[in-house]
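Reviewer 2 asked us to include a model.

Predict the structure of this chain.
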Amino acid sequence: MELIITESQYKFLFTEQSAPVKIGCRDYDKIGTLCPSLSFPKAEADKLITKYKPNADKGASIRIDKLVQTISSMGGKEGKKFAEKFSESITISKPQIIKVLTAYYPQSIYACCGLGPKINMSPIILKVCGIIYNQFMKSWKDDFIGRQVVSYLITSDNIKKVQSQAKDIFDTVINEIESTIDFYFSDVSYSVSKSVSQMEKTTPKCSKVIITQDKECKPIPKSEWYSPNQKYKNIDVAVLPATTNPSQLTRKTYSPKISAFLNSLV
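Predicted model (structure tokens):
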């Protein structure tokens, strides 16, 4: 007489009852292959957005204030007015800059959690520096007295020096904005990494694996052998794409405009 078993009985007999793989210190890299990964829940990613975004915005605000201080100390005698105008423009633009970064914050969290694409920093830098540049030009146009002062200070002998100082100021703005944006999203990575490591302490156990040695190759008493918690898949804390010079697009866009503006002062 032929014995017929159902699919569920087969799984119970030959899958569920199979012995777990013993993992020693040299086999830790096999855990990811043997244990099924979990998809990170979007609802949990949304909680991370709510939890960490206020602190991220506060940190960006502090860095922008430091940028204002850095720019205000530049310029020398002839370029001081340009430094003051750029500092003033950054201060006025700060709410808009924070708003731009805020708009990308959910995407950065989703990127970390494997729920969306990485963030390209170049267009963000371009947008933020565009805000500062436009505010600078507006402030310059509105400041009649300031323009007269600069006109008085600039001569045919020092115009090249003034132009060089002003270009250095704007180049510093671009560099510091790039650094601020990179810091903003790097902080996102740290927050997600920390949260996920905590969450993985309560995920289901991977019964296919049992740990018999610690990472230093010391045997674990048999009574203390354990199965590891399942990991979340597609977690990637590198939310920014690997670009060698993300501010290059901004320089190509605004350096000619700054040069044209400075040439008009002669």
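Residues 9-16 have pLDDT under 50 and may be disordered. Residues 97 and 264 are 28 Å apart (CA to CA). We have added this to the supplementary material.
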